[in-house]
Amino acid sequence: MTIKPLIILPDPLLRQVSVPIEKVDSELLALADDMLETMYDAPGIGLAAIQIGVPRRLLVVDIAREGEEKNPQIFINPEIVKSSDELSVYEEGCLSIPEYYAEVERPAAVTVRHIGRDGKEHLIEADGLLATCLQHEMDHLNGVLFIDHISRLKREMVIKKFTKAAKAKVV
């Protein structure tokens, strides 16, 4: 397994819509394993393929807390088929927007259809942190960032800060 470099805001790749995956093969599973290794190293609880520069509809999550046994999950072509009317607020962060956090309101529970590591279709009902994490990562697959769910003023400030930092690195 290989730790991949993360794509950081303002990279335009983060706004790209990822393409569906046609087949589950050893190459795809190796990519998923690299993504898990990258996510754990960061450290984070979720990672979409686009965050390592691969515009494919693949994400990985593991919401196990420190000291708990790891529970890596792979979601290929995930799709929300049902969302609760009840909303919840979590303070979210993103590996592609390091060290910035904001409260985001999302449906408290979701039902997600996806293809698993075994190549078969699965349905998972998620609530709490897992529901938030899945929605956050699935947003990435559609070119949406968690800062798109906060006020325009705050979002513009974050984008300006990261654009300035990116320009400083180039010089």
UniProtKB/TrEMBL annotation:
<dbReference type="GO" id="GO:0042586">
    <property type="term" value="F:peptide deformylase activity"/>
</dbReference>
<feature type="active site">
    <location>
        <position position="137"/>
    </location>
</feature>
<keyword id="KW-0408">Iron</keyword>
<dbReference type="Pfam" id="PF01327">
    <property type="entry name" value="Pep_deformylase"/>
</dbReference>
<dbReference type="InterPro" id="IPR023635">
    <property type="entry name" value="Peptide_deformylase"/>
</dbReference>
<comment type="function">
    <text>Removes the formyl group from the N-terminal Met of newly synthesized proteins. Requires at least a dipeptide for an efficient rate of reaction. N-terminal L-methionine is a prerequisite for activity but the enzyme has broad specificity at other positions.</text>
</comment>
<feature type="binding site">
    <location>
        <position position="136"/>
    </location>
    <ligand>
        <name>Fe cation</name>
    </ligand>
</feature>
<feature type="binding site">
    <location>
        <position position="94"/>
    </location>
    <ligand>
        <name>Fe cation</name>
    </ligand>
</feature>
<dbReference type="InterPro" id="IPR036821">
    <property type="entry name" value="Peptide_deformylase_sf"/>
</dbReference>
<keyword id="KW-0378">Hydrolase</keyword>
<dbReference type="GO" id="GO:0006412">
    <property type="term" value="P:translation"/>
</dbReference>
<feature type="binding site">
    <location>
        <position position="140"/>
    </location>
    <ligand>
        <name>Fe cation</name>
    </ligand>
</feature>
<keyword id="KW-0648">Protein biosynthesis</keyword>
<protein>
    <recommendedName>
        <fullName>Peptide deformylase</fullName>
        <ecNumber>3.5.1.88</ecNumber>
    </recommendedName>
</protein>
<keyword id="KW-0479">Metal-binding</keyword>
<dbReference type="GO" id="GO:0046872">
    <property type="term" value="F:metal ion binding"/>
</dbReference>
<comment type="similarity">
    <text>Belongs to the polypeptide deformylase family.</text>
</comment>
